[in-house]
Write a structure and sequence with these properties.
391 residues, alpha/beta, Rossmann fold, 2 domains, nine-stranded mixed sheet, 15 helices, binds S-adenosylmethionine, methyltransferase activity, SAM-dependent_MTases_sf
């Protein structure tokens, strides 16, 4: 592909990504993979260049652009070399017309800016994320793994964590295929630390998804006790099973819940759990480093729906906790209505509950919980709170 044809390919992909973000379709990564599957003539350098253009254009535009062309013209305003590639040659975009507008530059959609927690450094939300690893204590100690990964650096305060540079291909290494390490952002590892799961406990991971945090809890429990991974989406839970095998965490039980009738599926666990983790569905504002197009998907109506769902999940999670036990509420969102205010509302609805102080060498206290941000903590952004049921 010529450099100009790569720009046109990026424009075509951005058109598809914009439509998909508007209509709730597949993620950008899926669309990019599909696009190249149908265009075998594109070599690996073409793919990398097109992908970089696409993600640079997504990162640059806070609001969803009208067209892929507008998104790329916006990028060309910052990178004038790109503007010369709009040359009208075969497979290239037409020249940029005088006065033709590019998408506006910005990090956060205007409607969302006032809703983000005040300490959040908005300019840092779109940085590049490193590859963070968690050494799987069920199979190895950090001292065994560190010499196998000389490019990895420790992460202060997280004894089982290692950090590799962005894009490092860990999934091709035996240390990953053998289950000695999991890819897990430091923020998620801090949440697992805040859970303080111990061997022998009964633990419910209520929004387990594909089990990223479940596996961290399994390692903290040293494979002893009861660990139930629940979710309403069968395909997500199905992805946990091979991961648990690889990690040697075979004691994990999975529980598929029926959306809107979750309490029925959880009836046998009432007042049984020492710990319930609610890693709730959320706006994902803390993970824009990895999913920058997520900010083109969010709308005020979708945010309202998520907040309602978070409150509903908290309400059916609370009765599972035994007296004296803990409900750890976490979201990878930095919107106060999903974090600080959600916890305050929970405490107002549920007598006999209180927020524990969280003693971790990271984050900032925020309302009844802790705020982690890319700008302050170098991890994905999260809000989390430890809610304790009175004994
Ligand atoms: C933020 S993701 C969880 C990520 C996962 N804990 C991890 O560490 O990889 C939120 C999950 O909540 C699940 N979910 C949504 N509504 C739910 C409900 N009513 N009950 C249980 N899980 C739900 C979603 O399917 C999704 O997998």
């Amino acid at each position: 592909m010529t450099p100009s044809a790569r720009i046109q390919a990026a424009i075509d992909l951005l058109d598809a990504i914009i439509a998909s973000a508007r209509d709730g379709g597949p993620a950008a990564d899926t669309l990019i993979a599909r696009y190249f599957k149908e265009r075998r003539y594109a070599g690996s350098r073409d793919r990398r260049a097109v992908r970089d253009h696409v993600y640079d254009a997504i990162r640059r535009a806070g609001e969803r652009p009208d067209t892929g062309r507008a998104a790329m013209i916006g990028l060309a305003q910052d990178q004038p070399d790109l503007a010369t590639l709009f040359d009208g040659s075969p497979h290239a975009p037409l020249p940029i017309e005088p006065g033709e507008a590019g998408a506006e530059a910005g990090a956060v959609p205007a409607w969302l800016q006032p809703l983000l927690a005040a300490p959040v450094e908005q300019g840092a939300l779109l940085g590049r994320a490193p590859v963070d690893l968690r050494v799987n204590r069920l199979k190895a100690a950090p001292a065994d793994v560190a010499p196998l990964l000389p490019d990895a650096a420790p992460i202060p305060g997280l004894s089982d964590a290692l950090r590799l540079p962005e894009g490092w291909p860990i999934e091709q290494q035996p240390v990953w295929t053998d289950g000695l390490v999991e890819v897990q952002d430091a923020g998620s590892q801090w949440i697992a630390a805040a859970c303080d799961a111990q061997p022998g406990m009964t633990v419910v991971d209520l929004c387990a998804g594909a089990g990223g945090k479940t596996l961290a809890l399994a390692a903290a429990m040293a494979g002893q006790g009861r660990l139930i991974a629940a979710d309403t989406i069968r395909t997500r839970l199905a992805r946990l099973e091979p991961r648990a095998q690889r990690a040697g965490a075979t004691f994990i039980e999975t529980l598929l819940l029926d959306q809107s009738h979750e309490a029925r599926g959880l009836a046998a666990l009432q007042a049984q759990a020492d710990l319930v983790l609610v890693d709730a569905p959320c706006s994902g504002t803390g993970t824009w480093r990895r999913n920058p197009e997520a900010r083109w998907r969010l709308t005020p109506a979708r945010l309202d729906r998520l907040i309602g769902e978070q409150a509903r999940i908290l309400d059916f999670a609370a009765p599972l906790v035994k007296p004296g036990g803990v409900l750890l509420y976490a979201t990878c969102a930095l919107v106060d209505r999903e974090g600080r205010d959600q916890v305050a509302a929970f405490l107002a609805r549920h007598a006999g509950w209180a927020a524990d102080a969280i003693d971790l060498p990271v984050g900032r206290a925020h309302g009844g919980g802790t705020l982690l941000t890319p700008g302050h903590d170098g991890s994905d952004g999260f809000f989390f709170a430890r809610l304790r049921r009175g004994a």
